[in-house]
Design goal:
Strand content of chain A: 15-25%
Structural class of chain A: alpha+beta
Number of domains of chain A: 2
Oligomer: homodimer
Shape of chain A: globular
Strand order of the largest sheet of chain A: 6-5-4-9-8-7
CATH architecture of the largest domain in chain A: 2-Layer Sandwich
Order of helices and strands of chain A: HEHHEEHHEEEHHHHEEEHH
CATH class of the largest domain in chain A: Alpha Beta
CATH topology of the largest domain in chain A: Beta-Lactamase
Chain lengths: 265, 265
Amino acid sequence: MTSLARMLAILDLFDEGASVWTAEAIAGRLGYSLPTGYRYVRELSEAGLLRRDAGGTYVLGPRVIELDYRIRVGDPMIMAGQRVMRALADDTGCDVVLGTIYGERIVTIHQEHGGEGIAATYGRGRRMPLFRGMMSKVILAELPRPRLRRLHEHHREEAQGGTLPPDWEGLVLALKAVRKAGYSISQGELDPGLVGIAVPLVDKAHRLIAALGFAITGRRFATSDNARLVALLREAADRIARSLPATIAEQRPASRPRVRRAAHA
Amino acid sequence: MTSLARMLAILDLFDEGASVWTAEAIAGRLGYSLPTGYRYVRELSEAGLLRRDAGGTYVLGPRVIELDYRIRVGDPMIMAGQRVMRALADDTGCDVVLGTIYGERIVTIHQEHGGEGIAATYGRGRRMPLFRGMMSKVILAELPRPRLRRLHEHHREEAQGGTLPPDWEGLVLALKAVRKAGYSISQGELDPGLVGIAVPLVDKAHRLIAALGFAITGRRFATSDNARLVALLREAADRIARSLPATIAEQRPASRPRVRRAAHA
DNA sequence: CTGCTTTTCTCGTATGTTGATAAATTCATT
DNA sequence: AATGAATTTATCAACATACGAGAAAAGCAG
């Protein structure tokens, strides 16, 4: 493990539960010496990722908020998705959510409200349980086998509490079905009374990029045309995928003519 | 400069303009060797702070969105401010914003909409110009002299374009006045047609923590009772300051009895 | 499959990171 | 304001490990 990773591991501490830490507690928890703990915390604070709060405590820093803003206005995927998702929300009145997997976490990265005042528990930035909910199912279903395997091994306990079969064989079977169907409907798995419908969002090489989904009330779902909703999602997912910049050619800083390596130390 | 700081410097590249970078461009731009560039990018990607996009490009990662969520629901300052700010927005119909300074940046960290449909350019996460706008003025006015000095030196150019005197003596004088007044009103400095009113938010030791402000339309401002608005802000700022956890006693991970140093490697 | 680009590896060296201890802040309280 | 207790940084030698050059590997488009 590199010093870089050790430092970044500090951010993990803020993920669950505690949102306030002392440098001492951080060092103790992660097994770093006190000076090292302070060193890391200082570096992160200087980068704005942590903020020193009252009484020698540290909290996540304003830089995170700033970077989040940069994502909202600059991320290619969100930029491509926003318009389509907005239209979809307007047309249907449903909440539309976009989620993705990174590492071993599934997170909602964008959400457009449909105006029916759905108070979904799982809004933007919220981590989703791996084995329940429409998005997780549809994402897991598209994962390459080895990756799914690792995920399952690392999160055995969580798999127990999910709505998918907790054992490996059963899981694979269930996900195969989801993959075949091309969508997933989950009723009340995350919020009681809410129904989620999701489809995978894949690139032209059929690699999973994200999951796109509806959240609607159970009441409405009872009289809704599922096939139609799924079709709408598929269409929207397609549209988003197509409008994703294939390979951003523009980007290489215009000034620099493709240096082979750094010109200076 | 430590390797930690060098790695974190990569995040700066995403701050302005470009939101998509190749590893090669990053290495070139920051003067790192190619392997080092890739190493850093990999570490950041593994932490989720970057995400590998199509075509070997990298963008800010979903972890940022997740951390931002953690701030929204867990940051003591925002938690303390939210309720008060919401009430203030409801009572007045004005937009209410909370901003802070970190390093040499002033950023809006929370915003409550007043329902008058103000489309403020400077919402949550947006970096504000250092020398214009209500929040910047009120924040700079409370800064310790040496820190202000450094800020001014490092941002000479920006000071030119501000609405404060660009020269040091003039700046100090103007800010002294702001400090004495205890509030700042800026008309159309950020958004034409919008007026901002801000007061400093200080802790019991009178150290600056943040700035709390209103954004209202010029039309409304023309017939508004400024003294009253300022008083409302002051009261709210006080209430927020008082409800800030002085020293979070609860936090130290209950399990660990105040270790002197790490028990293991 | 075949070139191409992107990314990781290998490895010796030098640099930078580490932890114990001490010094210096900062902070709360009298 | 001053004291004492906290938090935070500095010192410094030993050691680990981050570094760069080049090569190899892995992805990727045609």
